């Protein structure tokens, strides 16, 4: 990767702060960036993360809140690496300033220049871990204090963890968090489904411990495609991405996830499963519409998972016509409210036990005679969180902590499944009085 310069711009393209790393491109070239963005927006083109001018200047950028982070180069650079570096910049700035926006940039010029100098040298990324940067770039009343000698972690092979960390109680918290993306059409057929998973950790351990994690992933048990020599269910993950602390060579050799962890919170790995997912919370709707008079809804929600599990804070968000009024609701569980600012009604069920089924009926006045275009109606959206449950069936088989002093460590493991983009299309309205009472 070679980035000639990095800029932070406001939404109008005005330079808030910049750092010239190589001096091979005039800094005034940044003035060509915003016209490229505006031209793409006017032509209703999809905005690509890379914009180029006729003279071969490339702008790679990320928009965050009300600022643009832009890297400029004329080299044949690795675009994905530069964009990843810009995302790392955002992460570091948020660690320092809590929020990255134009005002926080203006308030922290001194420390931002220091961070830009430490994180990149002559266009090449250097230290990008916030925890390590905070050890020798500190901020007090917008003033900077720098140690003359960098901490050992900067020159150490393990750049993400410092030496000399001590805790009275040594603990490891591991969360397996899965999000379910689902799209169901008006006929009840699943059009798209996938599981996006992440293993997130909080590590409070003394010294330089080595952790070893075992999962029931098929690939992790056997790299040769043979069936794993273990009991129980195994799953096959796709698009597995690891934190830099994981020893990839060891994983390639014997499928062991072995690592010296950063201190505190971090994401160890992420994965995806594109298997057909059974909808965990199923919702059927019947709509009875009388233009110029009223519209009625009948909804049935069912928890399609085992009875020993419970979904918490379930929200079923159902779109209604913009001019609907005079709402009346009746349901067998939870509460229903009208959210006119969203043109929706929201059915909330605090605890939804597996195998249970609930009904809801809604009545709205409908002064408009004109019918809605069914193709333009937004779908039903469902939000939920199911603790102690994973859709994929992933399991942590073991989590070992090895440290030369031999102290006892306490590992804690949790499983959580939650909604991602979870949508069910509404059926066409009926014009007869067929909706049952509840």
Explained architecture:
The protein has a nine-stranded mixed beta sheet, with no helix packed on it. It has three domains: 5-155, Beta-Lactamase; 171-276 and 394-415, Immunoglobulin-like (Sandwich); 281-387, Immunoglobulin-like. Mean pLDDT is 87; it is low at 141-148 and 219-231. It has helices at 33-42, 79-97, 102-107, 109-119, 130-136, 152-155, 218-221, 248-254, and strands at residues 5-10, 15-20, 50-52, 58-64, 67-73, 120-121, 124-125, 137-140, 143-146, 171-184, 190-204, 210-215, 238-242, 257-259, 264-273, 281-290, 294-303, 310-319, 325-331, 335-339, 344-353, 357-365, 380-387, 396-402, 410-424. By secondary structure, it is of the alpha+beta class. The chain is built from eight helices and 25 strands.
Q: What would the keywords be for this entry?
A:
5-stranded antiparallel β-sheet; membrane; globular; alpha+beta; Beta-Lactamase; Adaptor_comp_med_subunit; 438 residues; Immunoglobulin-like; 3 domains
């Amino acid at each position: 990767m070679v980035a000639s310069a990095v800029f932070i711009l406001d939404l109008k393209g005005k330079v808030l702060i910049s750092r010239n790393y190589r001096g091979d491109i005039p800094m005034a070239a940044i003035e060509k960036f915003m016209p490229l963005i505006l031209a793409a927006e006017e032509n209703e083109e999809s905005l690509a993360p890379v914009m180029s001018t006729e003279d071969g200047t490339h702008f790679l950028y990320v928009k965050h809140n009300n600022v643009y982070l832009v890297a400029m180069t004329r080299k044949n650079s690795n675009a994905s690496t530069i964009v990843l570096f810009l995302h790392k910049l955002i992460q570091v700035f948020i660690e320092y300033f809590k929020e990255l926006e134009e005002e926080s940039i203006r308030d922290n010029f001194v420390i931002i220049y220091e961070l830009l100098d430490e994180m990149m040298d002559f266009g090449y990324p250097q230290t990008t871990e916030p925890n390590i940067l905070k050890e020798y770039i500190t901020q007090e009343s917008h003033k900077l204090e720098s140690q003359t000698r960098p901490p050992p972690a900067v020159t150490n092979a393990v750049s993400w963890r410092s030496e000399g960390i001590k805790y009275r109680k040594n603990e490891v918290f591991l969360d397996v968090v899965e999000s379910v993306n689902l799209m169901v059409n008006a006929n009840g057929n699943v059009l798209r489904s996938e599981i996006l998973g992440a293993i997130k950790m909080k590590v409070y351990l003394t010294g330089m411990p080595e952790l070893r994690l075992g999962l029931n992933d098929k690939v992790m048990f056997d790299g040769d495609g043979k069936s794993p020599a273990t009991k129980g269910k195994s799953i096959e993950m796709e698009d597995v991405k690891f934190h830099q602390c994981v020893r990839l060579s060891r994983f390639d050799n014997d499928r062991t996830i072995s690592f010296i962890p950063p201190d505190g919170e971090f994401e160890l790995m992420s994965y995806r499963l594109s298997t057909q997912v059974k909808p965990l919370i199923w919702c059927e709707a019947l709509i009875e519409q009388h233009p110029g008079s009223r519209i009625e809804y009948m909804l049935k929600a069912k928890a399609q998972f085992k009875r020993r599990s419970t979904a918490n804070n379930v929200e079923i968000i159902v779109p209604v016509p913009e001019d609907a009024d005079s709402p009346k609701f009746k349901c067998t569980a939870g509460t229903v409210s009208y959210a006119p600012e969203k043109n929706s009604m929201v059915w909330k069920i605090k605890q939804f036990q597996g195998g249970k089924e609930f009904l809801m009926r809604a009545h709205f006045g409908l002064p408009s005679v004109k019918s809605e275009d069914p193709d333009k109606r937004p779908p039903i959206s469902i939000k939920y969180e199911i603790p102690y449950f994973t859709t994929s069936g992933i399991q942590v088989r073991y989590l070992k902590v090895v440290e030369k002093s031999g102290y006892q460590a306490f590992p804690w493991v949790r499983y959580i499944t939650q909604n991602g983009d979870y949508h069910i299309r509404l059926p066409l309205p009926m014009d007869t009085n067929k909706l049952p009472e509840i």
